[in-house]
Structures are given as C-alpha cells and as structure tokens.
Write a structure and sequence with these properties.
The chain contains 4 helices and 10 strands. The chain has 202 residues and is of the alpha+beta class. It has one domain. The strands form 3 sheets. Strands 3-1-2-5-4-8 form a 6-stranded antiparallel sheet. Strands 6-7 form a two-stranded antiparallel sheet. Strand 9 and strand 10 form a beta hairpin.
C-alpha cells in the first residue's frame, strides 16, 4: 500500500491581492458572462509519510496539525488560516472548480521534509503548489467544466494568467478532489491547446 499523504491548505485571512487581480483580469479576458464571480487562492502542501503505514494517516494528521500551529514553517498565524484536509478542498461549494498547479521542478522542499521529520518523526517528502478556487453563479453549475478550462488557460500578453504553460504543470478539479492533488513530478507540462489542456478536468 502507498504511504499516507497529508494535505495542508493555507490561505490569507484578509484580501489576497493576487486573487483580486486574477478575478479582474478574468473579467477582461473572458467577459462578464463567463468569468467567475469569485476567485480565491491558497497554498497546498502535500506531505508524504515515507515510513508510515497507510492506516496511520489520521494519527499523523493530528500530530502534524498540533505541531504545525506552534510553528511558522507553513503558515503565519497572524495572517493565514490553515486546514489539514480530509478528502475535500478547503474552499468548496456549488458551481466551484479548482486549478491546482506546481512550478515545474521546484515543487519539492527537502528542507521542510527534514524539519517535519525532526519535529514528529519519520521521513517525509513534501511538495508545495497553488490552488485557484473559481466560483460561478449557481445557474452556471453545469457549465463549470468548460468554464474552468477557459479560465485556467486564459492568456495575458506575457503568458498564462492562472497557469503558465512554459513553467508550470496543472490539474483541474470539478466536483472531485484527489489526494495527492498536485501534478506529479513526472507529468508532462500542461500546455494550452485548442479545446483543452494536458491537465484535464477531474
């Protein structure tokens, strides 16, 4: 069986300037009819417990959660809120989709893995990515799979808005969530294509 994977969702308590800018840009790029009504952004950390049995996930999650809140390694308690996920994204709802992306070749953090190992024991492989949460009006729920594809690969003059196809890999989720959710290191780079992307919609 595969080692257990913990997912940590970290987002700003206050307004996130990057999310506000992305929401405004999508209004311009997609038009008011197809642009999401709300855009959010969060860090997603995935922590693979390399030495632990698969059934140890709940225990490890509780130990990590207690330690993480006493440390500033993953979040700033005065600025951020953090959730250890339990099989679902930290920001969900009707007519909502998620764009999960990683910087190609830069997602893994050995320093974080070593620190967590010292704190709660074991060997850890830790990767970090970003999650864009896009929410449309409830009456557009059936259209979200197509709309999120358009939004994820929307391009500004100098590259992708939510996903930069030249340097990032991405996966799209609608009414689904994987653990792990981050694109694996060996996955081919996500590229904007006519009618879709390499990432696909889960």
């Amino acid at each position: 069986m595969s080692p257990p994977v913990l997912q940590l969702w970290v987002e700003r308590l206050a307004l996130d300037p990057a999310a506000w800018t992305a929401a405004h840009a999508l209004q311009l790029l997609l038009g008011a009819t197809d642009a999401p009504a709300r855009v959010g952004r969060a860090d997603l950390w995935e922590l693979e417990a390399l030495d632990a049995p698969a059934d140890a996930r709940a225990e490890l999650g509780a130990r990590f959660d207690a330690w993480m809140r006493t440390s500033n390694l993953f979040m700033n308690p005065g600025r951020d809120k953090a959730l250890v996920l339990d099989g679902a994204p930290g920001d969900n709802g009707e007519a909502t989709g998620h764009v999960v992306c990683v910087d190609r070749g830069l997602a893994e953090s050995r320093a974080h893995g070593i620190t967590v190992g010292h704190a709660i024991g074991g060997r850890w492989r830790i990767r970090r990515g970003n999650v864009w949460t896009l929410q449309w009006a409830p009456e557009r729920a059936e259209d979200v799979p197509g709309l999120i594809e358009q939004a994820a690969w929307a391009k500004r003059r100098h590259g992708g808005l939510l996903v930069n196809a030249e340097s990032q890999d991405a996966r799209l989720y609608v009414a689904a969530w994987d653990c792990p959710a981050l694109p694996p290191a060996e996955e081919a780079g996500a590229k904007a294509q006519a009618g879709g992307s390499d990432g696909g919609v889960a």
